Amino acid sequence: MDGANVPTMAPVLILLGPPGAGKGTQARMLQEAHGFVQLSTGDLLRAAVAAGTDAGKEAKAVMEAGGLVSDEIVIAILKDRLADPDCATGVILDGFPRTTGQAEALDTLLADTGQQINAAISLEVDDAAMVARISGRFTCGGCGEGYHDVNKPTRVLGICDKCGSSHMKRRADDNAETVGERLSAYHAQTAPLIAYYEGKGVLQSLDAMGDIKTIATTLSGMVRNAVG
Ligand code: ADP
Ligand code: ZN
């Protein structure tokens, strides 16, 4: 698939920020509020690992070590997903691009389909706080809602607020050692994208150290302006 079925003006938003910055949480809220589709390469890769595809087999060890999966695999997965009809309402890219190679590939992909990046929004956080955020987080296995032991507990212990499931999951790579590796990979390979998007005139930044709802409100305003 080449994405040619995506209409020309579908908004494209990018969330940038280190692991634990809240990209996934905020992307889900934007999806609910604005109807855009959250595309998380982390989720797509975890699905590939669970399905045991060739790409998943190759990605598994890299992800467990906190490194970055090869551009080739990630770009192929993203390109496929972007061509799905639901993406025609607009997409929020969460965790992609993560390298300059991926950013350039995205530019090419969008140019081919007559699309543009509306905004690349950088969630600014302190590294020190990220370890605590990541090691406390868990997700509902039923509906995918994200939670945190301290910052966003479920209303009833062990039960999802949204769907009532008691099947909660913690990611294999959300442990202190791997988090350090993921932060290093972020600074070495992903942080340069802030300058990349600044150069294109689409960069916006927001302080993402506050509470989830305040950040969501600010972000929602930015998105509304960016998509016109
Ligand atoms: P986080 O942002 O908290 O690190 P993600 O779910 O986005 O979590 O990513 C988990 C892991 O999946 C990363 O540590 C990396 O190994 C892999 N991954 C996700 N997106 C990409 C990408 N765009 N390029 C390379 N690897 C990726
Ligand atoms: Zn749920």
Q: Topology of this structure?
A:
Elements: E1 12-16, H1 23-34, E2 37-40, H2 41-51, H3 54-65, H4 71-82, E3 91-94, H5 100-112, E4 119-124, H6 127-135, E5 137-140, E6 146-148, E7 168-169, H7 176-190, H8 192-199, E8 203-207, H9 212-227
Parallel strand pairs: 1-3, 1-4, 2-3, 4-8
Antiparallel strand pairs: 5-6, 5-7
Bound molecules: adenosine-5'-diphosphate and zinc ion (ZN).
Adenosine-5'-diphosphate (ADP) binds next to helix 2 and helix 3.
Can you walk me through this structure?
The chain has 228 residues and is an alpha/beta fold. Helix content is 47%, strand content 14%. It is built from nine helices and eight strands. The chain has a five-stranded parallel β-sheet with strand order 2-3-1-4-8, sandwiched between helices. β5 and β6 form a beta hairpin. The model has no long low-confidence stretch (mean pLDDT 93). The structure holds adenosine-5'-diphosphate and zinc ion.
